[in-house]
Amino acid sequence: MSNSSENIAVSDADLIGRWKEGDSTAFDLLVDKHAGKAYQIAYGVLGNKEDAEEVAQDVFVRIHRALSRFRGDAEFSTWLYRIALNLARNKYRWNKVRGLREMVSLDAPQEGEDGDSRGPMAVPAPKPSPDHEAIFRELEQNIASELENLPAAFREALVLRNMDDMDYHQIASLLGCKLGTVKSRIARAREELRRRLKL
Predict the structure, then answer these.
(1) Stronger pLDDT, 62 or 149, i.e. the higher one
(2) What global pTM score does this model have?
């Protein structure tokens, strides 16, 4: 296993080039570098650990099959995130059809609850008291429940914004809409969550 900081220093383009030249370990490095983000997107849409892990694995199966045709017209990460989002949407719809409406949660492994430091949803202290933890868990459950009730377009935009390095331009590219639309959806999603949660 390579050093993770070394993996980050190697560009996606270099790794893809190495893989196309027959270096099979280069694909493993791509997986190491991006698996966390693929999981975060899937978890943000699905709110279920097992489903998110399944989708994240499927993402790299799809990428492995198509990587020889990847021309680099877009960033590799943008392509990967789009695949992750589409597979997570499909899984969500499939679960819904089967009556397995899993709650979507903001409790993914990421910084902050709403993507910026001004959001109303506070991160708990490292060692909260049992009372504080119970209150936080209740708030967390309420957020998950209300997020589930948001229109899909608002929910997806907000989930993507919660990722540390997912900026508005990336979200617009992933969702196939204008920058202003993304900003509006995120603002409306936050406003609606605050209203419903009375924050």
Answers:
(1) 62
(2) 0.60
